[in-house]
Design brief:
mainly alpha, single chain, about 400 residues, two-stranded antiparallel sheet, about 70% helix
Length: about 400
């Protein structure tokens, strides 16, 4: 056990959700007769859930400040519908329609942020009203009819990385390059951490443990690189997955390495203390809510591109999956706790659960029941450990440094 801890670089409990994700994938792969771990299935799984995971990035920050946003699905649906309508009715370039959708998301977030930060109306009430307004708005402006999306958006919603270079690699070279970059970045981060590992204790982590850890992660990344890149001709790593990856890196840096990110956690941990220490609480509330609706617009754009049309029911209940992803990823209901990387793991657990149950032929009704029990079990288990005086198992995943 001692050697395993050295290889993994810390407390084994911080890997609980990663292990749970891996077990889910293996179990569903066995039950489904090998249909889970296929190129086409994982490409569809990632591109089909990217929009929910993007919502979860913003929802994590909202929940960390101690609020909730119930309007994200409706805002996403409204922004996507406006984008499709202006592109169709006014014959404007697709990129102008996309910018209009993003502006709508920003304005919707500013609306929610104003009521929360300036008038002190809780986010739950503010966004509940927003959910009603924008849900009704989608149906109103669409007249309950689907509207075709600009052709160019299909690449963003369901496209794949392009093929180039020699064919002897046996896989999509763009995906191969992405995998190599991912491994290189991981090696760089691990070497940097190892260099400073003994600064606090005076004892450096053993080199052999570092090498084994890098090899294990490189094998995993390499396998999924092959899985995504070796599918049928014309497919590769999905473009929505790349957008999600870029946004995950950006928001991880924002929350962990910037002044605004520190303010978000300070306000969520103790609003009064944060204010006394010079944090502008109102501005933090406002920007966090505005950011949430901006990401909702991004999610709506990707979904419309994948669906090739904007529909009056787009965005329905998306907020539930986003919130579930955040809490399964270890965020605290009271605020102040949670990370971007853990939220992505929580979202992937929900995505794999959805996908695996679909492969098994489980209906949407029973899938909702099972997902509800999984959410309750994950949060209850975490709360139990906290009340027992033990470390939070879920919350320790990718803990704040």
């Amino acid at each position: 056990m001692k050697y395993i801890k050295q290889v993994l670089g810390g407390d084994l409990r911080q890997y609980t959700m990663v292990v749970a994700l891996g077990l889910l994938i293996l179990i569903f792969n066995i039950i489904s007769g090998g249909r889970m771990l296929t190129s086409s299935n994982f490409q569809n799984l990632l591109s089909g859930n990217a929009y929910v995971l993007i919502l979860a990035l913003g929802m994590l920050m909202v929940i960390v400040i101690g609020q909730i946003d119930l309007s994200v699905g409706s805002v996403a649906g409204f922004a996507g519908m406006v984008m499709a309508l202006v592109a169709k009715n006014y014959n404007i370039p697709w990129w102008c329609a996309v910018l209009i959708a993003l502006v709508i998301g920003i304005l919707a977030g500013a609306w929610h942020g104003f009521f929360l930060s300036q008038l002190g109306i809780p986010g739950f009430i503010t966004t509940l009203g927003g959910m009603m307004i924008f849900r009704g708005g989608v149906i109103w402006i669409s007249r309950s009819i689907s509207v075709p999306a600009p052709e160019e958006l299909k690449w963003f919603g369901s496209g794949y990385l392009p093929e180039w270079g020699p064919a002897f690699t046996g896989m999509n070279n763009s995906t191969l390059l992405l995998g190599i970059i991912a491994i290189a970045c991981y090696v760089f981060v691990q070497l940097k951490k190892h260099k400073h590992s003994g600064d606090a204790t005076g004892v450096k982590d053993p080199v052999w443990a570092l090498i084994i850890r890098i090899l294990l992660v490189a094998i995993i990344i390499g396998y999924f690189t092959w899985l995504f890149g070796s599918g049928r001709v014309g497919t590769s790593f999905p473009v929505p997955g790349l957008i999600l990856l870029v946004l995950t890196i950006i928001y991880h840096i924002i929350t962990q390495r910037t002044k605004f990110g520190r303010h978000v956690y300070a306000v969520g941990g103790n609003k009064a203390a944060a204010a006394l220490s010079g944090v502008n609480v109102k501005r933090t509330y406002f920007l966090t809510m505005m950011n949430m609706s901006f990401l909702a617009a991004v999610a709506g754009i990707l979904f419309v591109g994948r669906a090739t049309a904007a529909g009056p029911a787009d965005g329905t209940s998306w907020e539930m999956d986003a919130i579930a992803s955040v809490f399964i990823g270890g965020a605290a209901v009271s605020g102040g706790v949670g990370t971007i990387l853990a939220t992505i793991v929580g979202g992937l657990v929900m995505a794999v659960l959805n996908n695996g149950l679909m492969l098994m032929g489980v209906g949407a009704d029973r899938t909702q029941v099972i997902k509800g029990f999984v959410l309750l079990a994950a949060v209850a288990f975490d709360v139990y450990n906290k009340k027992s005086g033990k470390s939070s198992i879920i919350g320790r995943l990718f803990a704040n440094k």
